[in-house]
Amino acid sequence: MNSDRYKTRTLNREKLRIALAAAMAENKVDALLYPLQSVLVAPIGDHSQPERNGVLSNGTGFPAVTFPAGFSEPSPTARLGVPVGAELLALDYTEPKLLSYAFAFEQAYQPRKAPVLTPPLK
Fold first, then answer.
1. Is the pLDDT score of 27 beyond 90?
2. Which of 109, 105, 92, 101 is nearest to 14 (CA)?
3. For residues 85-94, b (16+ Cβ closer than 10 Å) or e, as one string?
4. How many Å from the N-terminal Cα to the C-terminal Cα in the chain?
5. Rounded to two decimals, what is the model's pTM?
6. What is each CA distance from 73 to 30, 40, 65, 82, 83, in whole angstroms?
């Protein structure tokens, strides 16, 4: 914790937090909504998560909630499409607001689909 590298990273994280909070306040934004991942599916054997956007929460320490946001366009190999996630991020101590936004979206949009081979529930 006494290394210059650690101190620099901690300072940069705080700068990012301040810049993001200032931009949200200036634009009167309660929360940011963005796709969780730009690349829908990583190839088998690829251990990375290319184009993953969820790092903003990790980089700032601000709370975020990830939730199902629907499906991509269907394709021959994915008859329903690929599940797509969204992430909402807001400032410290706004978890109730984030959860209510995510819940409201899921209730209004109902983005979940049963797999093609799932039998109907009785």
1. yes
2. 92
3. ebbbbbbeeb
4. 58
5. 0.77
6. 30, 11, 24, 7, 10
